[in-house]
Each structure stands twice: as C-alpha cells, then as structure tokens.
Specification:
Number of helices: 3
Structural class: alpha+beta
Distance between the termini: 165 Å
Radius of gyration: 55 Å
Helix content: 40-55%
Largest sheet: 4 strands, antiparallel
Order of helices and strands: HHHEEEEEEEEEE
Length: about 240
C-alpha cells in the first residue's frame, strides 16, 4: 500500500536541521568566545602578577641603589676631608713659596756648620720693627779717580756710623774723565761702625742696615745731584 507524500514535513525537517545547525554554530561561537575570554583573563592576570613582581624587584633595586649612593656620598665626603687634611699636613712638612725658600736657606746654612742657636737668635730678632723714627736724608760726594778734593764722609748715629763711597769717573763727549762719578756704573760704599767696615758694591740704589747700640739703622744709597750720593735712612729699636 503506497504512503502519501507530505511536502510540508520535508520543509519542516530541513528547517529544524538548519535551526540545529545554527544553534550548534552559536554554541560553538559562544563556547569559543568564553574560552578565549577566560584565556585572555588568565593571561592578563598572569601579566599583572608578572608586572607587579617586576615592579617590586625594581623598587627593591632602586632602594638598594639609593643606599649605595648614600654610602658612596659619605665615602666621598670622608675622602675629601682626608685629602684636605693630608694636603694641609703636606704643606706643613713641605712648604711652598717664601717658606720653602727659607727652609732651603736654613738647611744650607746648617750644612755649612752655622750654629743653630745663633741662627735661632737671628730669626727671633727678625720681628717687625718697633720704635722707628722718621726717615732722614744726608749726602756725600762720591770719590772718583779724577776727583782731587778731600774725602767725603757722612756720619749718622752721633758719629757711630760713617759712610763713604767711590765710583768710576763719568766721561765727556771726547771720552775724557770728569770729576764726578758715573751713576750708571757700580759704586762702592763703605759703612764703618764699632762692628767693623761693611763694603757694598753695586749699581745704585744700594740698601744696607747696621746695628749700633740698641738701634738698627737702615740705609738706602741713591743717586743725588752731580757728584753726590743721597743717603736716606731711618732707625728702629733692636733687637
């Protein structure tokens, strides 16, 4: 017996099949999306944990570097302080400038056999001058080979110190010697006192000091008017 064919049933079956397929597709998409979202969340959580760990490590390293920097600064300050101390000690042991020259001179005199106590006396005596008087000026004629007049001597300190001098004759245009001395050439000056005669020879000006009694007389011999040398001097308490 033949069954009757129902076309609507066929369409309904296909519609159900399409719906099932769509439902399966949607389910697959939903599940895939859920899995992807979950995996993304897990990855983000792991990344956050990783970043937090790295941040913690970096913070610890920063703190450690800060501590090291503080220690280095303290060590640098200590080193600078020590350097300044060593430099000061070195300057005291090995002086520079005038002090170095004086130390070399003292060592040289000691090597030559000078009495240390005598040297110490002179050093203590070389204090700033006290009890000084105002400078005064005198003059004397400088003797020359062409000068036939009397010897010229100037005295100071009530005659305790006598000063005289001689020089070379000046020349005229014809090369002949004049009676007066040539101030451009060396001059010999004698300082006579109870301590003896000090002889100084140099071009003018000439500086010298003489101790007489309890006074030290300081002289500067300069060029004066023709034939004359000018004596500028003062005196201070000694020692």
């Amino acid at each position: 017996m033949l069954q009757s064919y129902d076309p609507s049933a066929r369409y309904k079956a296909k519609a159900r099949q399409r719906f099932m397929n769509f439902a399966v597709f949607c389910g697959v998409v939903f599940i895939s999306g859920g899995i992807g979202f979950w995996l993304g969340g897990q990855s983000a959580a792991e990344e956050v944990i990783k970043l937090k760990t790295e941040n913690k490590n970096l913070t610890a390293q920063y703190d450690e570097l800060q501590d090291s920097l503080t220690e280095l600064r303290a060590e640098a300050q200590t080193a600078n302080t020590r350097f300044e101390q060593i430099k000061k000690e070195y300057a005291e042991l090995v002086p520079e400038g005038p002090m170095q020259d004086l130390m070399a001179l003292l060592r040289q005199q000691l090597d030559k056999g000078m009495d240390p106590q005598r040297m110490a006396f002179f050093i203590r005596s070389a204090r700033p001058p006290t009890g000084c008087v105002e400078p005064d000026v005198k003059r004397f004629v400088v003797s020359t080979p062409a000068y036939s007049g009397p010897d010229s001597i100037v005295s100071v300190a009530d005659g305790a110190i006598k000063i005289s001098g001689s020089g070379n004759s000046a020349r005229n245009d014809q090369g002949q010697p004049e009676a007066w001395f040539d101030p451009a050439q060396p001059v010999t000056v004698l300082f006579a006192s109870e301590n003896g005669v000090d002889k100084k020879r140099s071009t003018l000006p000439i500086q010298h000091s003489v101790v007489s009694g309890n006074r030290e007389y300081r002289f500067t011999i300069e060029e004066g008017t023709r034939s004359f040398a000018k004596v500028v001097y003062d005196s201070c308490s000694y020692p």
